[in-house]
Q: What sequence folds into this?
């Protein structure tokens, strides 16, 4: 027997009782489960995989966290340190034992489950199901492996599992923060899980690459453990030194990931109109009244192999970039931040051309509570301030179209008509319907009520009007020529 | 220089060179300075008693010698090896008995030997079996069921079984009841008799020092305050009252006097024919 074999024998001799108990317990529990649960239960073909999964979790809890911390707790670490073999044989033996006991007991549980379902119910186990394969690799293997590494940093094994989760979360937090920041308010539209997947979309991780990253994390865990143990615990320096070494090693491991994340985030937020996968969101596109300027939301489509794309589809596309395009010169400019959307002012009825546009940015800070009428407030934009832009010039007219622009006496959003359904005249002045009158403003901003625009029909109660050319439809048979400032009857 | 030790051919110190050499060895734990510059040479083939009160750094010095602790300053070599850089050949040549048996509780002495035997190229199975018989160590009783004395005897047997040229004993007699202490002591003395083994024995038991030590080093306030043969230390102790070295603490000043009493007691016992028994 060599030194490694001696250490491996020591591990087996020390842990065989627990391993045997788990083996017996898994057999008995599987048998009881299959005997007690009604025969009509569906999904019995997955029982073997489930038994294997639960057994592995039990093995992880029983052995992994206490693998190294147990030596400290039992006061045998000095005994190990003094052996001439040094730190390598005990370290290798512990990992070998953990691997072996995991494989053997998990395999045993699967066999128990498969045999029980086959013999009792005549149901063959599902070999092609993903139960206990991908999920095991993702979480059930990763966390226990890291808990072994983290257990070297702590004096007690009970801290290993929560410690591993905490440490991994701590180191992944910058990546998650960068992703959420990059996605801006878009992820807020989703549930927690979707928001997470959505945020991960920033990284544009191909499915295959994600698998490799998980495998790298599985390999990295023993490496960090090796460094922590060899440099931190082989000589008596206290567990915190091992923790410090382990954390530094983790940081070094994560640094390339952080750098890669940074480049992905920058790429994600950068707008390239020449990109091959550029996509225009058609639903909010609009054209200024003059017909010269178009407002669209563009975004880069994510590759189809991106992680989670099959689940969230378009949600994983790049962030929207609100653009103002000069159709005459074919130039463009961004009129809002990354992730914001440009759209016609609320309440617009003429979708062909618009005099004003607003910028909707869900990531913008919530505005103070509106004091206006509830209907107007909710109808406009919820709790988000909507900057109002002149569609012709692109200039910002108001930082918040809603409050306090709408007044308490402005029932039914009459002022909104001024924004959404105004007529833009050749001299740049505008006319709109307000409280049943047609109001016109000049270039200086002064307003006057146009003649013969006294309430027509029920217009005092109507808050929508229809702009047509240089005039307005004031009813089914009445129009108003804003340029000529006269009312006329439409031919039948 | 090539030197063959128990069948191992390695780069080691010459036979006449000190087995353990510490120069300005320092160690602190947090703000507490335990060793403040220890200078010590342990001559080959002799039993050197490291005498000091509790908390003076005897165990720390042992751990530094084994490479289990890293020094904060100074150097230490054991059997010609650096404990941190060459721990493996060093530990193969050093037997160590800790102050507390720290083997796994589930192990019995056979399990302990089974685990340790592959670690030492010079492990002598027959000798180990003989030690178990001679020290009357229960073979099938696990450590967790051992009395402290049985545990110490098992650890002593495990330390001796590879026949190491250097033996480090860290207060192996502390806390033992008198009968067991006598039994363990006999085992140590019997092992040492006629052998060329070098021993560094950390203890605060003056009676033990008087019975087994060739040389005595007194460790106090993180330094070796006195070092020499028993007689030299006793002489120094005799002059100690006139010493102007105020840094020597009370323990160091009083130790030689106690040592003299213990030595006289041991010699008296010897003259009265009550010489201690030995393990053949």
A:
């Amino acid at each position: 027997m060599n030194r490694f074999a001696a250490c491996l024998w020591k591990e087996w001799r020390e842990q065989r009782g627990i391993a045997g108990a788990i083996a017996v317990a898994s057999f008995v529990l599987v048998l009881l489960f299959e005997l007690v649960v009604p025969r009509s239960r569906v999904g019995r073909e997955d029982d073997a995989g489930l038994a294997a999964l639960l057994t592995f979790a039990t093995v992880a809890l029983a052995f992994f966290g206490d693998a190294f911390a147990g030596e400290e707790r039992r006061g045998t670490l000095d005994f190990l340190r003094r052996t001439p073999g040094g730190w390598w044989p005990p370290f290798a033996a512990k990992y070998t034992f953990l691997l072996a006991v995991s494989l053997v007991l998990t395999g045993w549980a699967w066999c128990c489950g498969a045999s029980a379902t086959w013999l009792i119910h005549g149901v063959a186990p599902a070999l092609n199901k993903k139960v206990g394969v991908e999920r095991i690799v993702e979480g059930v293997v990763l966390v226990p492996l890291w808990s072994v590494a983290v257990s070297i940093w702590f004096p007690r094994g009970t801290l290993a599992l929560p410690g591993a989760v905490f440490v991994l979360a701590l180191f992944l937090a910058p990546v998650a923060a960068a992703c959420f920041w990059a996605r801006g308010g878009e992820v807020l539209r989703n549930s927690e899980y979707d928001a997470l997947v959505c945020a991960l979309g920033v990284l544009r991780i191909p499915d295959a690459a994600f698998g490799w990253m998980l495998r790298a994390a599985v390999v990295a865990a023993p490496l960090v453990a090796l460094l922590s143990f060899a440099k931190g615990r082989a000589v008596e320096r206290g567990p915190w030194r091992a923790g410090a070494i382990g954390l530094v090693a983790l940081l070094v491991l994560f640094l390339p990931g952080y750098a890669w994340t940074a480049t992905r985030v920058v790429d994600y937020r950068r707008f390239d109109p020449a990109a091959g996968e550029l996509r225009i969101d058609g639903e909010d596109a609009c054209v200024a009244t003059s017909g010269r300027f178009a407002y669209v939301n563009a975004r880069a489509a994510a590759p189809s192999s991106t992680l989670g794309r099959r689940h969230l589809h378009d949600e994983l596309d790049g962030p929207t970039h609100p653009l103002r395009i000069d159709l005459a010169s074919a130039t463009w400019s961004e009129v809002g931040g990354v992730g914001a959307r440009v759209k016609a002012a609320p309440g617009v009825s003429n979708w062909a051309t618009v005099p004003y546009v607003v910028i909707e940015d869900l990531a913008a800070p919530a505005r103070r509570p509106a004091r206006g009428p509830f209907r107007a407030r909710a109808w406009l934009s919820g709790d988000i301030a909507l900057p109002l832009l002149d569609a012709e010039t692109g200039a910002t007219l108001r930082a918040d179209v809603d409050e306090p622009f709408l007044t308490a006496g402005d029932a039914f959003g009459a002022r909104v008509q001024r924004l959404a359904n105004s007529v833009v005249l050749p001299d740049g002045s505008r006319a709109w319907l307000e409280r049943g009158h047609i109001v016109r403003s000049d270039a200086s901003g002064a307003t006057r009520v146009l003649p013969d625009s006294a309430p027509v029909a029920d217009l005092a109660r109507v808050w929508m009007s229809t702009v047509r050319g240089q005039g307005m439809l004031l009813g089914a048979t009445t129009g108003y020529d804003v340029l000529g400032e006269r009312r006329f009857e439409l031919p039948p | 220089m090539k030197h063959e030790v128990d069948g191992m051919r390695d780069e080691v110190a010459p036979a006449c060179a000190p087995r353990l050499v510490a120069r300005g060895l320092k160690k602190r734990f947090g703000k507490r300075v335990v060793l403040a510059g220890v200078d010590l040479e342990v001559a080959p083939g002799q039993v050197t008693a490291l005498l000091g009160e509790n908390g003076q750094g005897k165990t720390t010095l042992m751990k530094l010698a084994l490479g289990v602790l890293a020094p904060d300053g100074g150097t230490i070599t054991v059997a010609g090896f650096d404990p941190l850089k060459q721990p493996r050949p060093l530990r193969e040549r050093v037997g160590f008995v800790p102050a507390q048996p720290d083997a796994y509780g589930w192990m019995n002495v056979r399990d302990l030997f089974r685990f340790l035997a592959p670690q030492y190229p010079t492990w002598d199975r027959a000798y180990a079996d003989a030690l178990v018989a001679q020290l009357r160590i229960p073979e099938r009783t696990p450590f967790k069921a051992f009395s402290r004395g049985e545990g110490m005897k098992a650890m002593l047997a495990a330390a001796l079984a590879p026949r190491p040229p250097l033996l480090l004993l860290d207060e192996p007699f502390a806390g033992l009841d008198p009968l067991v202490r006598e039994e363990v002591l006999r085992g140590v003395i019997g092992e040492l008799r006629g052998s060329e083994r070098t021993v560094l024995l950390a203890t605060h038991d003056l009676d033990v020092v008087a019975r087994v030590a060739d040389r005595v080093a007194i460790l106090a306030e993180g330094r070796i305050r006195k070092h020499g043969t028993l007689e030299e230390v006793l002489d120094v102790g005799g002059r100690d009252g006139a010493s102007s070295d105020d840094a020597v603490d009370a323990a160091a000043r009083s130790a030689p006097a106690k040592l003299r009493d213990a030595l006289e007691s041991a010699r008296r016992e010897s003259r009265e024919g009550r010489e201690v028994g030995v393990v053949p």
Observations:
- Residues 250-271 of chain B form the longest helix (22 residues).
- Chain B has nine helices and eleven strands.
- The longest strand of chain B covers residues 32-42.
